[in-house]
Design goal:
The chain is of the alpha+beta class. About 20% of the residues lie in helices and about 25% in strands. This is Tripartite motif containing 46a.
């Protein structure tokens, strides 16, 4: 609107005065610019809200016109600014020369077709090259040339800039793009490919690489047989004596029953690992490989481990119940027991010509169960004379234990390799034992004079199913079934062990305890697929 009309009759402005820096309607412009006065010489322009100074003046020195241009600082200078020490040694040009130099941007606009042909040549060179470092240099050069053709970028700004006819104003606006424009002109006039697409000048020297490859020594893992499947899987391995040290190992495993993607834990620092959260009664396949500066070595041979058929029952031997200190001793942690023939056995042997005298020692667990399925394992010393391993009702075991030791137990059938405690007509006996001795297992179906025995496995597994009243004995390493019996689980049932003569047994420790005992740090593998 006109800034000089009196309200409420303000009219729309039709002219603007660059000298007055105001907008006028026709009548007001004539009124404030009378003919024959200096105001009549004012420059009229279109109405605007932003009036540009007609003459650029120095912001530091008022009334001083900007007549010089410093190429180093890229600033417009007045006569006083030019004399400052800060511009000493700089290249200072008159506005006219700077105006002509910056006007050379029109050269780029006039050679758009040349630039486009150079871009095409660059793209053709890229297509002729294989994927290598040269492509990056040429791609960067294409981007640089393509930027000169973009209307929204430098060219669009340059086209608007060339419309400016006032030299100081042009230099003021063009200085921010001066370096880019000078570089673009130089690249346009002196164009060449940033990289040669051919390899005729290249000579490959692979001597260092060959030497490094020959020095590489991959890790070879051996001896992964020291393994155990119990409450968790325990895998242990070692390296050859002449092997290079390994930075870390990778342990992989999968279920053999339902093969799928290998599950893996990377960067295992030790030479053993533990795997938990396993499926019961399943076969797992495990393998290991080492890594050093040469990379990963070959996988070890695959190890197959069979998990127990039921959750592992952890217990200790009860030392307070019926323990004869002169014949039976417990180890630290109460998971080891040894029976030594004492004086009482020697005294009983003095009467062997007239009657049969047996000295037996009974040990039970410190807990009892009456429901669910449970599994545990133990090792019987091969040199043991006679050892019975099994389960029984606590009350019935106490009753049997307090019988005179020189009387034959009615629950021990000399013609049977196992002691079930069953009487005639009783389907579920109160206890059930498997008999073993001198490195052998006495078969449950043996009949004199042809007794049948089987080798004693290194570890014996026992699985109690309280719901079905069934006890199953296994070779704990392969989980091969050795014998199966029945037991009455209407009352609490506990693991029990009986010694006759000298012998020893060791309860299987939990994998976690073994691993923590042999390592100061624990690496626990969870079944997360990596």
């Amino acid at each position: 609107m006109c800034g000089f009309c009196k309200p409420p009759q303000s009219l729309e402005a039709t002219k603007g005065c660059a000298d007055c820096k105001s907008n006028f309607c026709n009548e007001c412009f004539k009124l404030y610019h009378p003919w024959g006065t200096p105001r009549a010489q004012h420059e009229h322009i279109l109405p605007t809200n932003s009036f540009r100074p007609k003459v650029l003046t120095c912001p530091d020195h008022e009334q001083e016109r900007l007549q010089w241009y410093c190429r180093n600082c890229q600033r417009l200078l007045c006569s006083l600014c030019k004399l400052r020490r800060v511009h000493h040694g700089h290249k200072v040009l008159p506005i006219a020369e700077a105006y002509q130099a910056l006007k050379e941007v029109s050269f780029i606009l006039a050679n758009q077709e040349t630039i486009q042909s150079q871009v095409t040549k660059l793209e053709a060179a890229i297509k002729q090259m294989e994927v290598n470092r040269k492509e990056e240099a040429l791609s960067a050069q294409v981007s640089e040339k393509q930027g000169l053709l973009e209307h929204t970028g430098l060219m669009a700004y340059t086209q608007e800039l060339l419309k400016e006819t006032d030299a100081p104003c042009f230099v003021q606006a063009a200085r921010v793009t001066h370096n880019r424009l000078v570089k673009a002109i130089e690249n346009l006039q002196c164009f060449s490919l940033a990289a040669d697409p051919s390899f005729r000048h290249f000579h490959l020297d692979a001597s260092k690489e060959i030497k490094l490859i020959n020095s590489l020594e991959f890790i070879r893992v051996i001896d992964t047989q020291k393994t155990l499947a119990y409450d968790q899987l325990f895998l242990c391995w070692r390296l050859p004596q002449d092997s290079a040290p390994a930075w870390h190992f990778s342990v992989e495993y999968q279920s053999h029953n339902a093969p799928m993607t290998w599950q893996r834990l990377d960067e295992v620092k030790g030479t053993s690992a533990v795997i938990d959260r396993l499926q019961m009664d399943s076969v797992y396949v495990l393998r290991v490989r080492g890594c050093n500066k040469a990379g990963f070595g070959e996988y070890s041979e695959e190890v197959y481990l069979h998990t127990p058929p039921a959750p592992v029952l952890s217990f200790s031997l009860d030392s307070r119940w019926g323990l004869h200190a002169d014949r039976l001793a417990l180890g630290k942690g109460q998971t080891y027991a040894r029976s030594v023939p004492g004086l009482s056995l020697l005294q009983a042997a003095d009467r062997t010509l007239t009657s049969c005298h047996l000295t037996s020692d009974l040990l039970v667990a410190d807990l009892a169960v009456n429901q669910g399925r449970h599994y545990w394992a133990c090792s019987v010393e091969p040199g043991s004379y006679l050892v019975k391993v099994g389960v029984g009702q606590e009350a019935k075991l106490q009753e049997w234990f307090h019988l005179p030791q020189d009387m034959a137990s009615p629950r021990c059938d000399p013609d049977s390799g196992h002691d079930s405690g069953a009487e005639d007509g009783q389907d579920s006996p109160p206890f059930c034992f498997l008999t073993m001795g001198m490195g052998k297992i006495l078969s449950s179906h043996s009949n004199p004079p042809h007794p049948h025995t089987a080798p004693l496995p290194p570890r014996l597994g026992v699985c109690l199913d309280c719901d079905k009243g069934r006890v199953t004995f296994y070779d704990a390493h392969s989980l091969r079934m050795l014998w199966e019996g029945h037991v009455d689980c209407s009352a609490p049932v506990c693991p029990a062990f009986c010694f006759i003569g000298g012998g020893a047994l060791q309860l299987q420790d939990l994998v976690t305890a073994i691993y923590q005992h042999s390592h100061s740090a624990k690496f626990l593998i969870s079944p997360n697929v990596n």
